[in-house]
Amino acid sequence: MAEKIRLHDFIEIDYTGKLTDGTVFDTTVEAVAKNSGIATEKTKFSSMVICVGERQVLAGLDDSLEEKEVGNKYEINISPENAFGKRDVKKMKIVPMSTFKEHKVQPHPGLQIDVDGERGIVSRVAGGRVIVNFNNPLAGREVVYEVEIKRKVTDKAEMLSTFLNSTLRIPFSQIQVSVDDDIASIKMPIQLPEQFTSELGKKLTELVKLKEVKFSTIAKEEKK
Fold this sequence. Notes:
The protein folds into 3 domains: 1-86 and 138-154, Chitinase A, domain 3 (Roll), CATH 3.10.50; 89-133, Thrombin, subunit H (Beta Barrel); 155-224, 2-Layer Sandwich (Alpha-Beta Plaits). It has 6 helices and 12 strands. It has helices at 30-36, 59-64, 97-102, 156-168, 194-208, 220-223; strands spanning 10-19, 24-27, 48-51, 73-78, 92-96, 112-115, 118-126, 129-133, 143-152, 176-180, 183-188, 212-217. Strand 10 (176-180) and strand 11 (183-188) form a beta hairpin. The longest helix has 15 residues, at 194-208. The mean pLDDT is 93.
């Protein structure tokens, strides 16, 4: 009998996200990306390791993984509420034309902009006013995910490195992890605040079932 997935299990998955009409908007599979026309030279496609329940993938997908079986493929329908949210009229905002002129930008429908760290798409230009939609482009849409659960990850060093890569966006090549007698030593290229590493260490101790997690910074000579 295939092993079932539990909360906080680390698993390797491949997935493809589609709209209900079959349009692919996200995938970990390079061949699918190329066939769907969403592949770019800068984008790398590969299976990913996640910790179930830690929201490292879309919430609706994450929630659906519990009780699924390792080695199987599934098709999962996700409602707008559990995908990219409902469309919110409050996120349709008017941005003065003067704001665009200050940045020497000519607004037009479809233009993607960033205002105070919030991404939006110009939906209409009327006189001196520009209406910008700050909803996620997929807000209000039901989506379908095809997911394959390839394996359960049991190596604790791999669990740690993949979690840090996903959470802190640090390349695998810049993370050094060793685990001895359930005590983990983690070296990273940056020095994080002690309060942050203390909380992160507690979380990793719980998720990976360790006695202790020690953080240190990679010395300059080690980076070469």
